[in-house]
Amino acid sequence: DSGVTQTPKHLITATGQRVTLRCSPRSGDLSVYWYQQSLDQGLQFLIQYYNGEERAKGNILERFSAQQFPDLHSELNLSSLELGDSALYFCASSREGLNQPQHFGDGTRLSIL
Amino acid sequence: GENVEQHPSTLSVQEGDSAVIKCTYSDSASNYFPWYKQELGKRPQLIIDIRSNVGEKKDQRIAVTLNKTAKHFSLHITETQPEDSAVYFCAVKAAGNKLTFGGGTRVLVKP
After folding, report:
1. Looking at CA atoms only, how far is residue A14 from chain B in angstroms?
2. Three-class SS of residue A85?
3. N or C end: fewer C-beta atoms under 10 angstroms in chain A?
4. Which of A2, A43, A104 has the highest number of chain B CBs within 10 A, making it the mutation to test binding with B?
């Protein structure tokens, strides 16, 4: 158990819909990272939040957005869903400081029908 | 941006033999190099990491070597066991905290 909690474990929805994925970081971790893992793209960094503020952005689509709340949990919002958005979405968290290891949650499997 | 290439994409070894996976990167400012193991349907698990001021790090049967001049680093697994079968990912961090992952290596350890 990494200490990073993601809900829900599975989500099945239809094209055009909107979903919210939730992540609670390990106790004491201020940074939260979101990654997308699909079969043909590997692990792709989406976005990072540190203590409530956006810190770094990767290949995140405009249809996707995220935020980190005062209690440090984070949500990833995916809207106008397309078939290609089907993937595993992982959240990771790390301590403050240079080159701190990132620990991953168990992921949310999103299936678009 | 950073580009990370990982080889081989698949690796089959006999139990007890060694496995070596190599990654190359493009950004000379990269300073942190973790390796993750991912079993089927599970989360990536950090197994070892190395920072740019160190050339080699060992943890039991696992070691990582880093060549900053050549911009490559490798994962070495000795005395492989069936439970080492998984997908292994290297990653690289340059400026900021963004990790760029390699494409993964599927390792199969045959009993």
Report:
1. 22
2. helix
3. N
4. A43
